[in-house]
Amino acid sequence: MRFPLEDAYRRERADFVATIESLDDEQFEHGETLCEGWAPRDVLAHLLGIDTMPDAYVRAGGIGRGNARIIESYQAKSRAELTEAAHRWAASPALTARLGSAFFIGDLCVHHQDVLRPLGRSRDLDATRSAAILREGLVLGGRKLVSHRLEPTDGGRPIGRGTTVRGTREALGLWLTGRRGIEPELEFG
User: Fold this and answer.
1) What is the pLDDT along the chain (189 residues), one digit of tens a residue?
2) What strands lie across the sheet with 148-152, from one edge to the other?
3) Strand, helix or coil for residue 165
4) Same domain for 91 and 28
5) Which of 91, 92, 57, 62 shows the shortest CA–CA distance to 73?
6) Domain total for the chain?
7) Other C-beta atoms lying within 10 Å of the C-beta of residue 148
8) 20 to 30 A Cα–Cα from 23, which one of 131, 151, 163, 164?
9) Structural domain harbouring 176
10) Does residue 140 share a domain with residue 115?
């Protein structure tokens, strides 16, 4: 049985692993990402932890502390060990991840962009992935809709009220999640 957006979620996992494998050791261990304070290895650890340690968030008492515990638990692992775990993660998502594919795809797509963008890399995002990034932004930064009206320039309906912000669903979603440096891609007015 396939769950909503599971196939797209699995494809995005495989694409993310390919991106991680394309990094040299310095980029993997110490490269900048849009996740402040996280290198690509930390982003990978976070994503692996959603499958392997979902209880970390409850035990830690919040998302930030849960993420810190997950990342810490993977610190001693070598790049080869993390890459091997990533291949298993991509090929066999946990049942909890499969059940939440429609939700988790947004987090995964945002984190994929977190790794790619500081490297100056881009990729074509299909409608499913760009919509997932915007949905993730709405979940994490929806409070901005009280004072901002989002107008996606690549599909989708306007949402919110206040100052108009125009841009792609990807850029709007990344802006809503608080990623820095996205503003030049947006038109405020």
Assistant:
1) 789 999 999 999 999 999 999 999 999 999 999 999 999 999 999 999 989 988 887 788 888 898 999 999 999 999 999 999 999 999 999 999 999 999 999 999 999 999 999 999 999 999 999 999 999 999 999 999 999 999 999 998 999 999 999 999 999 999 999 998 999 999 999
2) 159-160, 148-152, 163-167, 187-188
3) strand
4) yes
5) 57
6) 2
7) 20
8) 131
9) 133-188
10) no
